[in-house]
Amino acid sequence: MYAIVKTGGKQYRVERGQRLLVERLAAKEGADVALEPILYRSDEPVFDKAGLQSVKVTAKVVAHVRGEKLRVFKFKPKRGYKRRTGHRQDLTQIEVIEITQGKAKAAAAKTTPEKPAAAKAPAAKAPADKPAAGKAAAKAPAKRKAKTAAKADGAAKADKASKAKEGQADGS
Predict the structure, then answer these.
(1) How far apart are CA 49 and CA 26, in angstroms?
(2) Bridge partners, 100 (sequence order)
(3) Rounded to whole angstroms, what are the CA distances from 143 to 102, 132, 133, 137, 151?
(4) Residues 28-49: pLDDT tens digits?
(5) What is the DSSP string of 78-128?
(6) Residue spans per domain, the chain
(7) Report field, pTM of the whole predicted structure over 0.70
(8) What angle do CA 27, 31, 69 make, to 5 degrees?
């Protein structure tokens, strides 16, 4: 029996009792962590979402360690450019404690019926709000009419001014 789990953006094939190094986890040493299963295999493979919800992969954090130092060397010929840096990855050593597949709970499949009385109560309050909204709606067209009238007056004045300027230019 084994499972393929996903952690830290990588996938690992794990079995019970196996120790492995993964990307740093935010759990303290000695804590149990649940890993996300992608595939479970005992007698038959399980890889659909409904089947994987019943699969649990539990691991214990053994230690937090740092990986080997990686040397990074940058070089550009004929320019005198040389850079040497290093990198050590933070890792967590875990041990897989158990891999279990439980039965899906029947209680989760059942749904509770909703109360129809709760849905009727908000509907009764809605008509009380309509008259207030109607008053505000009646005021809005009056404001619009005033604005359009002001714009039309401004446009007429601008036309008269431009015609007066043209007449002065012709008379000169």
Answers:
(1) 26
(2) 56
(3) 68, 18, 16, 10, 13
(4) 999 999 999 999 998 888 889 8
(5) TTTEEEEEEE--EEEEEEEEEEEEPPPPHHHH--PPPPHHHHHHHHHHHHH
(6) 2-101, 117-172
(7) no
(8) 50
